[in-house]
Design a protein that fits this description.
It comes from Cynara cardunculus var. scolymus. By secondary structure, this protein is α+β, with helices and mostly antiparallel strands. It has 2 domains: about 1-30; about 35-485, Cytochrome p450 (Orthogonal Bundle). Helices cover about 50% and strands about 10% of the residues. It is built from 20 helices and 13 strands. The protein has helices at about 5-30, 50, 55-65, 85-95, 105-110, 125-140, 140-165, 170-190, 200-215, 215-220, 225-230, 235-260, 270-275, 280-295, 295-310, 315-330, 335-340, 345-355, 390, 435-455; strands at about 70-75, 80-85, 170, 195, 200, 365, 370-375, 375-380, 385, 455-460, 470, 475, 480-485. The strands form 5 sheets. Strands 1-2-9-6 form a 4-stranded mixed sheet, with helices on one face. A 3-stranded antiparallel sheet has the order 3-13-10. Helix 7 runs antiparallel to helix 8 (about 170-190), helix 8 (about 170-190) runs antiparallel to helix 15 and helix 15 (about 295-310) crosses helix 18. The chain is globular. Bound molecules: protoporphyrin IX containing FE. Protoporphyrin IX containing FE (HEM) binds near residues 294, 359 and 434. Protoporphyrin IX containing FE (HEM) binds near residues 363, 434 and 440.
């Protein structure tokens, strides 16, 4: 392909403009206000070179040791405020919640939320409030929680049956299937796990939306990023992802519309049944996008980290199993009422979420009105990243061995996930806090209690369990957790 003669001069002119613009912004802003400290940044790319290709949560944690818990980074041409301590998280999520409660606009989130018809990516607005109410009452409310309980018991039973053979099991897969089946049955009426759509499994389609939601060039280079998105094929990939996802969800809606006429009186309504007539198709799809993206992998990953830490610490496993087995007595299964008595189990789940918050950062917010965080000025348009992974390890709060798994620390420290405590923020806080925290914690507790009541667990290889992390939006184990379950015979069969 011939490169046109004007290409090089245009490119040089373009980068010179960006260079001068960046320098001017740097000098003018620092002289007129008190900006948070920043690591040195380069023209055009800002601090991108310091974070790309690395574990961003660890890199930003390291940088915060030097520049403080309120840091200003430039990713491309965009300013990002990075929060890494409890105190500063409380200023953002509580004191300045109204100033920081919107979400940034991005090409990927706009498309995949059906033009912000969802809850999680929708800008702060009346529409967001309405959709959040629908999600809370229709998916997370009392009526649906009874359905959750019933479906969970059935799925748990089938998981337990599949584990009974004393052979090696990949718990990552098993737990993901468990949560996927439960959430899909409650939300969509059935599990779509084995169904193919456009040559992909429905899980592959949902996973691709997570990748596309992580952002593109135009999010950090608003003026010229679209060229890079086009040339790199990102736009095409987004369109393909959208069309697969939209097609899958449309099929679900069509199936419901089709079946609604024929449903008998025994049929228990799922989320789609209950909402399909009051929401538009795009609102329904936006809501389902949040449910499929927000409720499944997060809970499954938490269970896997909890099991990993428990297996790694035989003392903790023993203490936990003693508690569970004494609370359950000689029944064949754990039921929900037993769990309210299990204090140590609740501490183990909290400790898991402290050290392994599945998304290491809260969903990015955007500042809507000028305010001060930690005494520094923050301007509208600044994106706000809260490093939940770092906050859970803040040595000023978690004084004794903050990186060690030690559930007993919760005997002294009171935290809940309702958004009032900021010592750890696995579910965020303020008005954009995760609405699913209660349901998620119950699912995790119920699953762990059953797995540890019914089985003793051994690692495949003797020696220390590998705990390496992998991922950007969700942090998983790098290697799957493969264990051998040994049936416990103390309970009644
Ligand atoms: C262990 C499981 C879960 C974890 C760790 C988790 C974590 C989070 C986090 C960190 C946020 C961002 C909060 C913020 O920006 O302050 C969030 C938001 C959200 N989560 Fe969860 N979540 C979990 C389960 C669920 C479940 C079961 C649902 C149910 C559908 C759900 C739905 C949502 C929604 C809709 C939002 C956006 C809220 C808004 O912007 O108003 N999550 N979650």
């Amino acid at each position: 392909m011939d490169i046109p003669s004007y290409f090089l001069p245009t490119l040089i002119l373009f980068f010179t403009f960006i260079f001068i613009y960046t320098l001017r912004r740097k000098t003018s802003s620092t002289t007129t206000c008190n900006l948070p400290p920043s690591p040195p940044w380069l023209p055009v790319i800002g601090n991108l070179h310091q974070v790309l290709g690395k574990d961003i949560h660890r890199t930003l944690w390291d940088l915060s040791q030097k520049y403080g818990p309120v840091m200003l980074l430039h990713l491309g041409t965009q300013p990002f405020l990075v929060i890494s301590s409890t105190e500063m998280a409380s200023q953002v999520l509580k004191t300045h919640d109204p100033d920081m409660c919107t979400r940034p606009i991005s090409q990927g989130s706009k498309r995949l939320s059906f033009n912000y018809m969802d809850v999680a990516f929708s800008p702060h607005s009346d529409h967001w409030r309405e959709m959040r109410k629908v999600l809370v009452s229709e998916f997370l409310g009392a009526k649906r929680s009874r359905m959750f309980k019933k479906v969970m018991e059935i799925e748990m039973e089938s998981l337990v049956r599949s584990l009974s053979a004393n052979t090696i099991v990949n718990l990552d897969d098993k737990l993901l299937h468990l949560v996927d089946d439960v959430v899909c049955k409650v939300a969509l009426g059935k599990s779509y796990r084995d169904e193919m759509f456009n040559g992909k499994t429905t899980k592959e389609i949902v996973d691709e939306t997570v990748v596309m939601l992580s952002g593109s060039f135009s999010d950090i280079f608003p003026t010229f990023g679209w060229i890079l998105d086009k040339l790199s094929g990102w736009n095409r990939r987004l369109e393909k992802c959208f069309s697969d996802f939209d097609g899958f969800l449309q099929m679900v809606l069509d199936e419901h519309l089709d079946q609604n006429a024929r449903k008998d009186s025994d049929h228990e309504n799922d989320l789609v049944d209950d909402c399909i007539s009051r929401l538009t198709a795009d609102e329904m799809k936006g809501l389902l996008m949040n449910v499929l993206n927000g409720a499944i992998d997060t809970s499954a990953v938490t269970m896997v980290w909890a099991m990993s830490e428990i297996i790694k610490n035989p003392r903790i496993m023993q203490k936990l199993q003693n508690e569970i087995r004494s609370c359950v007595g000689r029944k064949s299964r754990v039921d929900e009422s037993d769990i309210t008595k299990m204090r140590y189990l609740k501490m183990v789940v909290k400790e898991t979420l402290r050290l392994h918050p599945p998304p290491p950062f809260l969903i990015t917010r955007e500042c809507v009105s000028r305010c001060q965080i930690g005494g520094y000025d923050v301007f509208p348009g600044t994106k706000v990243m809260i490093n939940s992974w770092a906050i859970g390890r803040d040595p000023r709060i978690w004084k004794e061995n903050p990186t060690e798994f030690h559930p007993e620390r919760f005997e002294e420290i009171q935290v809940d996930f309702g958004g009032k405590h900021f010592e750890m923020v696995p579910f965020g806080g303020g008005r954009r806090a995760c609405p699913g925290y209660n349901s998620a914690v119950s699912t995790v507790e119920f699953t762990l209690a059953n797995l540890l009541y019914l089985f003793d667990w051994e690692t495949v290889k003797k020696g220390d369990l590998d705990m390496e992390e992998e991922g950007f939006q969700l942090i998983r184990r790098k290697t799957p957790l493969c264990l051998v379950p040994i049936k416990y015979n103390g309970q009644q069969q």
